[in-house]
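Lab notebook, bench 4. Continuing the backlog of folding jobs that were queued last week. Each job is logged with the same field layout so the records can be merged later without manual cleanup. Today's entry covers T-complex protein 1 subunit epsilon, a 535-residue chain. Filled in by technician R.K.

JOB TYPE: sequence-to-structure
TARGET: T-complex protein 1 subunit epsilon
LENGTH: 535
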Amino acid sequence: MALAFDEYGRPFIIVKEQEQKTRLRGIEAQKANISAGKAVARILRTSLGPKGMDKMLQSPDGDVTITNDGATILEQMDVDNQIAKLMVELSRSQDYEIGDGTTGVVVMAGAVLEQAERLLERGIHPIWIAEGYEMASRIAVEHLDHIAQKFDFGPTNIEPLVQTCMTTLSSKIVNRCKRPLAEIAVEAVLSVADLERKDVNLDLIKVEGKVGGKLEDTELVYGITVDKDMSHPQMPKKIEDAKIAILTCPFEPPKPKTKHKVDIDTVEKFQTLRQQEQKYFDDMVQKCKDVGATLVICQWGFDDEANHLLMHRNLPAVRWVGGVELELIAIATGGRIVPRFQELTPEKLGRAGLVREKSFGTTKDKMLYIEHCANSRAVTIFIRGGNKMMIEETKRSIHDALCVARNLIRNNSIVYGGGSAEISCSIAVEAAADKYPGVEQYAIRAFADALDSVSIALAENSGLQPIETLSAVKSQQIKENNPHFGIDCNDVGTNDMREQNVFETLIGKQQQILLATQVVKMILKIDDVISPSDY
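JOB STATUS: finished
OUTPUT FIELD FOLLOWS
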């Protein structure tokens, strides 16, 4: 590349050897695409499992995120390559649909791509590889159905749900508190679940955090927390059997819509104006008192005069509450959001057993707890932690646990973790390959080898000898015909994942295999990469 100038002194760039540049086509394009996919998978491979490492990500504006959640890592990575972006979307799809297994699905896709590269080098056409992978994924999904187990749970028997959520939290930074956090997640989901319809609305679960305290102080609030305090320091800090007026209209005199000017040239006129303004405030407060409200929550602010009047009339108030929080408060308390004072009626008031203001530590931070609501189907998980990064990572971990609990309520089938399901599927796929006489049997066997790579990654990350560990577990599964043997990542002393209580949801594991296969098939069928400069 060289810089030159034309006769008018305008600079232009000469790109040398441009005629020698060739566009990637055919097998070269496929290999380049596979390399890009493998590069992304290699980044996440070390984050897999309970002993997986964390990644530190720095954003362009200097914010630092420490996490081992696959979806978060890929979301915050600055990826330019189009194939690598497909892997990012793969992880995002798993996160949206299942909520857990975002690292595993990318590692699986990377392993399948690696096997595809070897098959391409042996001269097998990409279409046959894609067909073989499709057959192998169907065999694996059917086998997962075969080895899955169902368990019964209910409001009184939540232990199976807690154990499955603990498996999810085992691979997170918060694993030292996995038992209490799993219990909080399960109780939150059961509070908002409709067990008859097997449906859970996660929008009713609010996850809030505040820096300070320790992770063990995280609590489940059966109601709503609002990061606000009473508008006047002398207002009561605790209100029992509260009747709440939820307003989106401000405590202030109405303003004309057009331009206006008020001329005041005498003291009497000023007094008249002030009395009129005070009458507006009086009427607004009186309307709230007349309908029986004992607490006012307002979306807008109000000036000192209105605040003073509210305090003297013994009507506690909270101002500047956000729209989303107002909606949650309305859902929880069974109240209606009122846009005008004229529409305020006793039927539109929300009801809560207790509203209290809580202070934290030696700081002036205060929060409002609205508890024992009329409609208890809205809850808040309130997280404490030593710093902002810890709280954000705990929020991500809690989200994964909530999604797992929701998936189990929808479908209560589980498979055992620790790589046991992948090893069992690998054995089943390997055995099924002999039934196919065509070229696709090579791809089916390659898929079985790719399934083993997840267990190898788990063993590597746990500091074990990968090949020896996998061989021992695989032979044990075949010998005893028991699909519950997996990698003993935590060095408990047994390979039986049923004894270790390591569970994963069936739909999560099936989704991993299906999504990884779909993306790999798409990548294999791309044989030409055309950039904007090529046309």
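OBSERVATION: The chain has 16 helices and 19 strands.
SIGNED: R.K.
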